[in-house]
Design brief:
eleven-stranded antiparallel sheet, mainly beta, ten-stranded antiparallel sheet, 305 residues, 6% helix, Beta-galactosidase, Chain A, domain 5
Length: 305
């Protein structure tokens, strides 16, 4: 097999599609950079596609629109630069098995870029995110990537390897709450080896939590299949939100799986990168939300480092 690249339209937008006969992803070319679709060629989109009513409800006062799909933002979350609109057409370049979309410089002076590479066979994709400081002064920020998942599924994130007391005395990882985090919400399953957050269209209250794991990993189980993303975090560096490399967020419309890079001082015209690896897996069906079942069906999807 080989990768084909073709111009197309998707959800009312101009787009480019990468496909290999088994899996495909669609990158928008009139706004972004943004990956709007990823899935099996014969299957539904794993990413959320916003309806006009949902878009109208969530769009920001400064012109930011949600759109859906997968995007790159600037962290830690601040209204002054995280929500810079991405409503203009990116510069799109293609070649072989890859596509690169680069935004115009945004209102915060940052240029955003997403490069997607799809394997010739199977579903594996490498997504490289780049943030470039195009201002005239140093800026301090972190890459923050957000995959907005289609409703009705569940996110599963493995904790770092568990240990015993008194053999393992130092703490292993942060588990971070927001002011609106409610562990008694039935969408959460806080287990020994996993954190699970389910998306429920019937529950409108938002939920969010974060953690750190050197091999940051999460899966989204939807309709019997799974989307998996991994990212190699660097212990010892400063990460946003009290040390998170992964965050999960859910409301009644979607669930987001977010990875974060370290906070860095970025000089003018300097670029920082953040690389995620994606894959799709069929027939991932836990019989219950407990450690034993997730060890059976989800652990094989992750490197248990």
């Amino acid at each position: 097999m080989s990768v084909s690249i073709a111009e197309t339209s998707y959800g009312g937008h101009r787009a480019v599609r990468l496909a290999n006969g088994e899996a495909d992803l669609v990158v928008l070319t009139d706004v972004g950079p943004r990956i709007q679709r990823y899935g099996w060629t014969d299957g539904p989109n794993f990413f959320k596609e916003m309806t006009p009513a949902e878009e109208s409800r969530l769009s920001g006062e400064q012109g930011w629109k949600v759109y859906g799909g997968h995007r790159i933002w600037v962290g830690p979350e601040r209204a002054s630069y995280s929500y810079a609109p991405d409503n203009e057409a990116p510069l799109v370049e293609t070649g072989g098995d890859w596509l690169r979309a680069t935004s115009p410089v945004d209102s915060a002076g940052i240029e955003k870029e997403i490069e997607a590479r799809l394997a010739a066979e199977g579903s594996e994709a490498t997504i490289t995110h780049r943030l470039t400081n195009r201002s005239q002064w140093p800026l301090r920020f972190a890459p923050w990537t957000l995959s907005m998942m289609a409703p009705g599924g569940a996110a599963v994130a493995p904790f770092p390897t568990r240990g015993t007391h008194p053999e393992d005395l130092p703490p292993s990882n942060p588990l971070v709450m927001w002011a609106f985090t409610n562990w008694t919400d039935p969408r959460w399953s806080l287990l020994e080896r996993y954190l699970v957050l389910r998306q429920d269209p019937g529950r409108s209250s938002p939920e969010k939590a974060g953690l750190f794991r050197p091999l940051t990993a999460a899966a989204y189980l939807l309709g019997g299949d799974a989307f998996v993303k991994t990212y190699e975090a660097e212990p010892g560096l400063e990460y946003p939100d009290m040390g998170c490399s992964l965050e999960l967020f859910a409301n009644e419309m979607f669930l987001e799986i977010e990875t974060l890079g370290p906070i860095r001082a970025v000089e003018p015209d300097e670029t920082i990168e953040h690389v995620e690896r994606w894959s799709l897996h069929r027939d991932v069906r836990p019989a219950a939300w407990n450690d034993e079942e997730l060890d059976r069906v989800a652990a094989p999807l992750f490197d248990r480092g």
